[in-house]
Amino acid sequence: MRTGRHVEYHLHAHLVFLTKYRRGALTGPMLVRCEQIMREVCADFEVELREFNGEDDHVHLLVHYPPKVALSKLVNSLKGVSARMLRKEFGTHVRDHQSGGRFWSGSYFAGSAGGAPLTVVKQYIEQQNRPV
Protein backbone atom coordinates (compact mmCIF):
# COMPACT_ATOMS: atom_id res chain seq x y z
CA MET A 1 0.00 0.00 0.00
CA ARG A 2 1.36 3.41 -0.96
CA THR A 3 0.12 6.78 0.16
CA GLY A 4 0.09 10.22 -1.32
CA ARG A 5 -0.96 13.49 0.17
CA HIS A 6 -4.66 12.71 -0.18
CA VAL A 7 -4.75 9.09 -1.28
CA GLU A 8 -3.86 5.53 -0.39
CA TYR A 9 -3.52 3.22 -3.34
CA HIS A 10 -2.53 -0.24 -4.40
CA LEU A 11 -2.65 -0.15 -8.21
CA HIS A 12 -0.70 -2.65 -10.27
CA ALA A 13 -0.71 -3.24 -14.01
CA HIS A 14 0.81 -5.99 -16.13
CA LEU A 15 2.12 -4.45 -19.37
CA VAL A 16 3.33 -6.31 -22.46
CA PHE A 17 5.07 -4.63 -25.40
CA LEU A 18 5.72 -6.44 -28.68
CA THR A 19 8.43 -5.66 -31.19
CA LYS A 20 7.13 -4.61 -34.59
CA TYR A 21 5.86 -7.67 -36.50
CA ARG A 22 7.09 -9.78 -33.53
CA ARG A 23 10.55 -9.87 -35.06
CA GLY A 24 13.14 -11.36 -32.71
CA ALA A 25 14.93 -8.07 -32.18
CA LEU A 26 15.80 -8.27 -28.48
CA THR A 27 19.03 -9.92 -27.35
CA GLY A 28 20.03 -10.65 -23.75
CA PRO A 29 22.15 -7.47 -23.39
CA MET A 30 19.35 -5.42 -24.98
CA LEU A 31 16.84 -6.78 -22.46
CA VAL A 32 19.15 -5.85 -19.60
CA ARG A 33 19.54 -2.32 -20.96
CA CYS A 34 15.83 -2.07 -21.74
CA GLU A 35 15.04 -2.85 -18.10
CA GLN A 36 17.43 -0.10 -16.93
CA ILE A 37 15.88 2.42 -19.30
CA MET A 38 12.34 1.49 -18.29
CA ARG A 39 13.22 1.73 -14.57
CA GLU A 40 14.47 5.28 -15.18
CA VAL A 41 11.30 6.25 -17.07
CA CYS A 42 9.14 4.73 -14.33
CA ALA A 43 11.03 6.69 -11.68
CA ASP A 44 10.31 9.91 -13.60
CA PHE A 45 6.58 9.07 -13.39
CA GLU A 46 6.84 8.08 -9.69
CA VAL A 47 6.01 4.52 -10.76
CA GLU A 48 7.68 1.45 -9.29
CA LEU A 49 8.77 -1.19 -11.79
CA ARG A 50 8.26 -4.31 -9.65
CA GLU A 51 9.18 -6.95 -12.22
CA PHE A 52 10.62 -7.00 -15.74
CA ASN A 53 11.44 -9.81 -18.12
CA GLY A 54 11.07 -10.72 -21.75
CA GLU A 55 12.02 -12.74 -24.74
CA ASP A 56 13.39 -11.87 -28.16
CA ASP A 57 10.11 -10.39 -29.41
CA HIS A 58 8.34 -8.95 -26.34
CA VAL A 59 8.75 -7.68 -22.78
CA HIS A 60 6.60 -7.97 -19.64
CA LEU A 61 6.43 -5.35 -16.90
CA LEU A 62 4.66 -5.31 -13.57
CA VAL A 63 4.24 -1.72 -12.42
CA HIS A 64 2.88 -0.20 -9.21
CA TYR A 65 1.56 3.22 -10.15
CA PRO A 66 -0.18 6.18 -8.49
CA PRO A 67 -3.71 7.16 -9.54
CA LYS A 68 -2.43 10.41 -11.10
CA VAL A 69 -0.55 8.46 -13.79
CA ALA A 70 -2.41 7.71 -17.02
CA LEU A 71 -1.18 4.30 -18.15
CA SER A 72 -1.36 5.34 -21.80
CA LYS A 73 1.07 8.21 -21.18
CA LEU A 74 3.39 5.94 -19.19
CA VAL A 75 3.32 3.33 -21.98
CA ASN A 76 4.03 5.94 -24.69
CA SER A 77 7.00 7.22 -22.72
CA LEU A 78 8.34 3.73 -21.93
CA LYS A 79 8.14 2.66 -25.56
CA GLY A 80 9.39 5.94 -27.02
CA VAL A 81 12.38 6.41 -24.73
CA SER A 82 13.42 2.75 -24.83
CA ALA A 83 13.21 2.61 -28.64
CA ARG A 84 15.26 5.79 -28.98
CA MET A 85 17.92 4.65 -26.50
CA LEU A 86 18.14 1.09 -27.83
CA ARG A 87 18.46 2.44 -31.38
CA LYS A 88 21.25 4.75 -30.21
CA GLU A 89 23.14 2.07 -28.25
CA PHE A 90 22.50 -1.02 -30.42
CA GLY A 91 22.14 0.80 -33.75
CA THR A 92 23.02 -1.79 -36.38
CA HIS A 93 21.15 -4.64 -34.70
CA VAL A 94 18.04 -2.52 -34.11
CA ARG A 95 18.00 -1.16 -37.66
CA ASP A 96 18.25 -4.70 -39.04
CA HIS A 97 15.06 -5.64 -37.16
CA GLN A 98 13.06 -2.45 -37.63
CA SER A 99 10.24 -1.96 -40.03
CA GLY A 100 9.24 1.49 -41.15
CA GLY A 101 11.41 3.08 -38.48
CA ARG A 102 9.44 1.55 -35.62
CA PHE A 103 10.91 -0.72 -33.01
CA TRP A 104 7.81 -1.48 -30.89
CA SER A 105 4.41 -2.43 -32.23
CA GLY A 106 1.85 0.35 -31.90
CA SER A 107 -0.32 -1.89 -29.72
CA TYR A 108 0.28 -3.17 -26.21
CA PHE A 109 -1.39 -5.20 -23.46
CA ALA A 110 -2.33 -3.62 -20.14
CA GLY A 111 -4.03 -5.76 -17.54
CA SER A 112 -5.04 -4.99 -14.02
CA ALA A 113 -3.14 -7.24 -11.69
CA GLY A 114 -5.56 -6.64 -8.84
CA GLY A 115 -7.64 -9.76 -9.48
CA ALA A 116 -4.78 -12.28 -9.47
CA PRO A 117 -2.38 -12.63 -6.58
CA LEU A 118 0.74 -10.62 -7.37
CA THR A 119 2.90 -13.65 -6.64
CA VAL A 120 1.25 -15.45 -9.58
CA VAL A 121 1.90 -12.52 -11.95
CA LYS A 122 5.49 -12.14 -10.70
CA GLN A 123 6.10 -15.87 -11.10
CA TYR A 124 4.72 -15.75 -14.66
CA ILE A 125 7.03 -12.87 -15.58
CA GLU A 126 10.04 -14.49 -13.89
CA GLN A 127 9.49 -17.65 -15.96
CA GLN A 128 9.81 -15.78 -19.26
CA ASN A 129 13.05 -16.82 -20.97
CA ARG A 130 15.73 -14.29 -21.76
CA PRO A 131 17.62 -15.14 -24.94
CA VAL A 132 21.33 -15.72 -24.53
UniProtKB/TrEMBL annotation:
> What is one Gene Ontology biological process annotated in the Swiss-Prot or TrEMBL record?
DNA transposition
PANTHER family the record matches: TRANSPOSASE FOR INSERTION SEQUENCE ELEMENT IS200
Ranges for domain Transposase IS200-like: 8-128
A Pfam family it matches: Y1_Tnp
Q: What is this protein called?
A: IS200/IS605 family transposase
> NCBIfam families annotated for this entry?
transpos_IS200
The record ties this protein, via InterPro entries, to: Transposase_17 (IPR002686), Transposase_17_sf (IPR036515)
What molecular functions are annotated in GO for this chain? DNA binding; transposase activity
